[in-house]
Amino acid sequence: MAEAAGGSAHAARAADTASRMAEVFTRTFGYDPEGVWAAPGRINLIGEHTDYSDGFVLPFALPHTLHAAAAPRADGAVRLRSLQAPEGDGFGVADLAPGSVEGWAAYPAGALWVLRQEGYRVDGLDLLVDSAIPSGAGLSSSAALSCAAVMAGAAVHGADPSASQVIRMARRVENDFVGMPCGVLDQSASMLSAEGHALFMDTRTMETEQVPFAPDRQGMTVLVVDTRAPHRLVEGHYADRHRACQEAAKELGVAALRDVTDLEAALAALASSELRRRVRHVVTENGRVLDTVDHLRAGRLRDVGPLLTASHMSLRDDYEVTVPEVDTAVRALLSAGALGARITGGGFGGCVIALVERERVEACGRAVEEAYREEGFAAPSLFEAAPSAGARRLR
Length: 395
Ligand code: ADP
Ligand code: MG
Hints:
Blueprint: H1 2-29, E1 35-46, E2 56-73, E3 77-82, E4 91-92, H2 106-117, E5 124-131, H3 141-155, H4 163-178, H5 185-192, E6 197-202, E7 208-212, E8 220-226, H6 234-252, H7 263-269, H8 273-297, H9 304-317, H10 324-335, E9 340-344, E10 351-357, H11 361-375, E11 381-384, E12 392-393
Parallel strand pairs: 3-5
Antiparallel strand pairs: 1-2, 1-12, 2-5, 2-6, 3-4, 6-7, 8-10, 8-11, 9-10
Helix pairs in contact: 2-3, 2-4, 3-4, 3-5, 4-5, 6-8, 7-8, 8-9, 10-11
The structure holds adenosine-5'-diphosphate and magnesium ion.
């Protein structure tokens, strides 16, 4: 009963959102859109810096969603509007090439470019974007935008790519058009997530499994702290960690660190203490993902807490991707009674998540805010994240 009522409330909300998007589109472009799409942001519950070692990840979709309303144009013109970003210049779909479009418009422009590269018959487009996903916070607003633009760009021209085709093309938008060498985790999470579940993904085989993850049903929640810490040299560090993993895999004679089965033997075989620490993180983190999945399958949600905290310590001490703002948040959350807490995302800033019992949420929030005041950090932003639905067409 409750489920059915919840379901129809969801449907009503989706219909409301679709109508509002359609109205704004009509006001903006002077005619009605052909469709409205939704794509959520994501958070990685656990499995950090494992994807480029062919390892395991466990993201879930946020309730924060990006919406796109679109209609095709037969004259090759592309007009893009976002309620969160300044208007860019119009351009022609035939002139698109990597580097030809700057700023946020590169994502939707890239979607059209990739679709054409892949043989879809795509003409011009009018597109309106409105998003509740904080941008640049490590919550994958860019993947949501790319996925929504690929889905909309294809559908208004009569094409119906599968979810895995959208994932691949949306990744190409960032890799080949925007110039961001991201993996496939963000797009997969946005496209494939299901409400009340986390998405267990093997990044070697791309196999996925929906694992039940509904903290609210067990009196808990995922509290997110957007530290708003300025990202520091992210790209250089990212490339550096990537290289270290490849180097270690080569020295150990495995295709990827995913294949290390005997950690002690691997550590003994590596001469560099830096590589030993990087390897220990990746191998133990893969183990923690598998343990987390076991606990979730068995409904033992509380047991996930210590794994989150262990993941953070590993990212702090062995992978060295934390900064004072995230370490402070994790310390404050744990001292205020969180069951577990960790940095999420690539690191060097971004967000912290904590598994928290409902009655401890306020205390945890206060503890973080107080600790930030004491340290003189800019005020963080806090919100709760219920595992939510993946991308879909709303109308
Ligand atoms: P993240 O994916 O973690 O949010 P990125 O730097 O990868 O951070 O992506 C953020 C970029 O995505 C923004 O700089 C902007 O170009 C684009 N973007 C995100 N949300 C919107 C939006 N609502 N409207 C226009 N562009 C957006
Ligand atoms: Mg991004």
